[in-house]
Write a structure and sequence with these properties.
Rossmann fold, 14 strands, elongated, 2 domains, 8-stranded antiparallel sheet, alpha/beta, Biosynthetic Threonine Deaminase, domain 3, 21% strand, 14 helices
């Protein structure tokens, strides 16, 4: 009673430095959060609970590692009672201080760490925890941000609990282990620790989870810039769900598109899709593991097209179900070139598309009849100030609409 919580810094290292300063200035007692025998012993009671609650054959326990206190404690207890059980630490690829220390044979200091899984974002493993982990851990697995996001989703779908990235690291490691080793005959346990999650972070997790589960491929594809190209491209993908489609006119000969494709068979299916598109003459770039593309470029495909004539902008809404995008394109396609296209599956009942269509003034009455026949709600956005500011560069004929 009477204690005061002090929040300081962007991560553990800054908070640690500040705490040691307060210790020196005010004569306080510093209790290390992980590099302390008593703290390690306390965290080791997690191993005691696991073994008590799972007396059946157990192959491995997966534990998240920041400074290493939890992993060291669980390993000490588990290896003493059940030495045949593997204890495997798991770290994010961009904060792998323990994995780096074990590889080097000594503690190392990372120049910087990623803060997505901030609860395990530690630049240097503890001295005592390193000693124990080096002696007792069977291995340390590192996982990507996408794999962590997929694990957050798995936990939510199985338990309706929202885990923080640091707690979900261990499940991501378990999945990586099974992917490497194949189905296992005995139990696997992943320790889920922490609840440091905010609502805004969920938006990022939802975007990245599908790629982390190998359920989505993000591809950059070059297709001919002419009417009907989109429809032919989507037809090649068959009944696969399109999760995203981004394009903006930039060249009269070739169109550069960013497309997300839902996968049912992971990487083998992705490789099959890429090979099929290349056989059909489409240059393809796999962006599924390109961090800049996933964080930024996929949302920036577009810009202001110069010299583009007779462009109209429409916003559409249509029922979201497999094949809906192809059906939409089949019914929309005519003699007009699509100059802009943006679609993203948001998991809702309705899909939303923003499309630019080049239509000469004389043919706009025909376009209106075609749009009405679609039967989908649509809105003419050609005068929208957002379009005028960011997507249009002196488009000829756009103001002479009927």
């Amino acid at each position: 009673q009477g204690g005061r919580v002090v929040l300081h810094g962007e991560g553990f290292d800054e908070a640690y430095t500040h705490a040691r300063q307060l210790e020196a200035e005010k004569g306080l007692t510093f209790i290390h959060p992980y590099d302390d025998p008593d703290v390690i012993a306390g965290q080791g009671t997690v191993g005691m609970e696991i073994l008590r609650q799972h007396p059946d054959p157990l192959e491995a326990v997966f534990v998240p590692i920041g400074g290493g206190g939890l992993a060291a404690g669980v390993a000490v207890y588990t290896k003493f009672l059940r030495p045949e059980v593997k204890v495997i630490g798991v770290e994010p690829e961009d904060a792998a201080s323990m994995a780096g220390a074990l590889a080097a044979g000594e503690r190392i200091i990372l120049n910087q760490v990623g803060l997505f899984a901030d609860g395990v974002a530690v630049r240097r493993a503890g001295e005592e925890t390193f000693r124990l982990c080096r002696e007792l851990l069977d291995e340390v697995i590192t996982v990507s941000t996408d794999e962590i996001c997929a694990a957050v989703k798995d936990i939510f779908e199985d338990t309706r609990a929202i885990a923080e990235p640091s707690g979900s690291v261990s499940l991501a490691g378990l999945k990586r282990y099974v992917e490497r080793e194949g189905p296992r005959p005995h139990g696997l346990v992943a320790v889920n620790s922490g609840a440091n999650m905010n609502f805004d972070r969920l938006r990022h997790i939802a975007e990245r989870a599908e790629i982390g589960e190998h359920r989505e491929a993000l591809l950059a594809v070059t297709i001919p810039e002419k009417p009907g190209s989109y429809r032919r491209f989507i037809q090649l993908l068959g009944k696969r769900s399109i999760t995203e489609f981004n394009y903006r006119y930039s060249d009269p000969q070739a169109a550069q598109i960013s497309v997300g494709v839902q996968l049912s068979d992971g990487d083998p299916e992705k490789r099959q899709i890429i090979a099929m598109l290349q056989e059909q003459g489409y240059p393809v770039l796999d962006m599924s593991n390109n961090e800049m593309a996933k964080l930024h470029v996929r949302y920036m495909v577009g810009g202001q097209a110069s010299g583009l004539q007779d462009e109209l902008i429409f916003r559409f809404q249509f029922p979201e179900r497999p094949g809906a995008l192809l059906k939409f394109l089949n019914r929309l396609s005519g003699n007009w070139n699509i100059s802009l296209f943006h679609y993203r599956n948001h998991g809702a009942d309705y899909g939303r598309v923003l499309a630019g269509i080049q239509v000469p003034v004389a043919e706009r009455a025909q376009l209106k009849r075609s749009l009405d026949e679609l039967g989908y709600p649509y809105w003419d956005e050609s005068d929208n100030p957002a379009y005028r500011s960011f997507l249009n560069r002196g488009t000829v004929g756009a103001t002479n609409r009927t």
